[in-house]
């Protein structure tokens, strides 16, 4: 049985073979920023202000991630479908178009964000006390934008070729380096938040180099080819049409973070902006296995859809849903039982430790509904149904979260209203997305004729 043929073997094993190394890779990848937050949150002489300042750049990081998803998650599923259908020439052109688009986009974003960083940070909720920390980190972090976009965007093509362990090593190498360099630059050399940013940029560069060496080497089933790097409008249109799903998902994350930080600054000040930084960090950590399962399922589902193995597509969706639901339920219970532990990972500031646990419990209430949202969204995206995937991403965040974040505090709930907007959106948006997916694409897979019939 070929390791790269997703139409053979048990579907759940194929998904887990992809998901486990991808999850480990994403955990390690998250260390780029999470380790920075852990160290920065325990800096002496800054209270929680340095952590608050770094938290203000989250919307910019999310925006960069949104453009990476626009191209990477737009191209990788199309690449998997083309490979499953035996169209290797088309798959190669998709991969190379994504590469050149990532290069152009990353350079443009670096320049724009660098020029406008001051007004943007104040718009995002900075204060005179927190701005110096945010600016010190961001001015250096932006220099690594081309590295992080290429490493993350092109790593999906390594996974889609059936090399998830190589994809895992992509981020392990960089994150291990970041873990080692952070204390050196932050504490030993006394560079503080600037040191954290320098360590991150170096680590991103190493990850990028690893990805490019593999995709240009002999092990790649479909390597990067200079002859196919000419931008083709038809392919770009297909990539953007599907990738807009990932773009909206991450782009709306940026919008939600901006609205949350600005609202918290108004009703609670810098302390609660710092609390939100901790909540986002905990959510990033706990959501990783869900993201890994969904990412592992997508190439398997997409390949089998391209190969017209529709029963295997349905099996993949069922397994993905069950695994996501089980994990998010266990995660929610852990947060309910040990909120102080999770907050303490990121800060030792007394005021933040007092305000954080209650906010964490509000924010994570009913976290298991995120499992339904992720399963529905990933199934739509894996099968190329961009219309539904886009709608439900917008529905949960733009139509539900943003208005509630602005409305609930104004109705007298204060900062608690900001934290409650998230679980309400998970309940309504998550169930709506999942039920629609089951009644549309899942049901249709049961009615299609498989290959050979």
Protein described:
By secondary structure, this protein is an all-alpha fold. The chain has one domain. Helices cover 82% and strands 0% of the residues. The protein is built from 17 helices and no strands. Helix 3 packs parallel to helix 11. The radius of gyration is 21 Å and the shape is globular. The two termini are 23 Å apart.
What are the defining features of this structure?
82% helix, 17 helices, 453 residues
Find the structural class using helix and strand composition. Answer: mainly alpha
Give the tally of β-strands. Answer: 0
Q: In which range does the helix fraction lie?
A: over 70%
* Overall residue-averaged pLDDT value: 88
Distance between the termini: 23 Å
Low-confidence stretches: none
Largest sheet: none
Q: Which value, in Å, is the CA radius of gyration?
A: 21 Å
Secondary-structure element order, N to C: HHHHHHHHHHHHHHHHH
Shape: globular
Give the helix tally: 17
Strand content: under 5%
Number of domains: 1
């Amino acid at each position: 049985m070929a390791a790269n043929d997703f139409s053979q073997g048990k579907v759940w094993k194929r998904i887990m073979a992809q998901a486990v190394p991808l999850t480990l890779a994403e955990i390690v990848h998250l260390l780029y920023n999470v380790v920075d937050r852990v160290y920065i949150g325990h800096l002496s002489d800054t209270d929680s202000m340095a952590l608050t300042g770094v938290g203000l750049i989250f919307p910019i990081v999310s925006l960069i991630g949104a453009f990476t998803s626009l191209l990477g998650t737009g191209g990788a599923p199309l690449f998997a479908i083309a490979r499953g259908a035996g169209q290797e020439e088309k798959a190669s052109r998709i991969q190379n178009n994504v590469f050149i688009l990532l290069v152009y986009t990353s350079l443009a974003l670096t320049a724009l964000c660098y020029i406008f960083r001051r007004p943007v940070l104040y718009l995002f909720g900075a204060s005179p006390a927190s701005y110096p920390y945010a600016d010190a980190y961001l001015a250096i972090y932006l220099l690594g934008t081309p590295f992080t976009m290429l490493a993350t965007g092109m790593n999906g093509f390594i996974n889609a070729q059936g090399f998830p362990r190589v994809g895992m090593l992509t981020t392990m190498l960089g994150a291990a380096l970041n873990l080692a360099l952070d204390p050196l630059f932050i504490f030993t050399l006394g560079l503080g938040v600037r040191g954290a940013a320098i360590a991150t940029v170096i680590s991103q560069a190493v990850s990028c180099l690893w990805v490019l060496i593999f995709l240009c080497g002999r092990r790649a089933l479909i390597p990067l080819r200079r002859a196919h790097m000419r931008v083709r409008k038809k392919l770009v249109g297909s990539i953007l049409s599907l990738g807009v799903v990932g773009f909206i998902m991450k782009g709306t994350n940026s919008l939600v973070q901006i609205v949350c930080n600005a609202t918290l600054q108004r009703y609670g000040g810098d302390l609660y902006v710092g609390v939100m930084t901790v909540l986002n960090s905990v959510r990033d950590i706990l959501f990783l296995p869900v993201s890994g399962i969904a990412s592992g399922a997508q190439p398997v589902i997409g390949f089998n859809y391209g190969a017209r193995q529709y029963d295997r597509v349905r099996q993949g969706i069922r397994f993905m849903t069950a695994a996501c639901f089980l994990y998010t339920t266990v995660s929610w219970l852990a947060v309910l039982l040990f909120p102080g532990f999770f907050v303490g990972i990121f800060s030792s500031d007394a005021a933040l430790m007092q305000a954080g646990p209650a906010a964490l419990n509000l924010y994570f209430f009913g976290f298991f509904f995120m499992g339904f949202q992720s399963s529905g969204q990933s199934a739509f995206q894996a099968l190329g149904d961009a219309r539904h995937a886009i709608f439900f991403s917008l529905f949960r965040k733009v139509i539900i979260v943003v208005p509630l974040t602005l409305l609930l505090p104004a109705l007298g709930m204060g900062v608690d209203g900001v934290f409650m907007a998230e679980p309400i959106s998970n309940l309504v948006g998550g169930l709506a997305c999942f039920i629609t997916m089951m009644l549309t694409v899942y049901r249709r897979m049961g009615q299609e004729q498989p290959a050979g019939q």
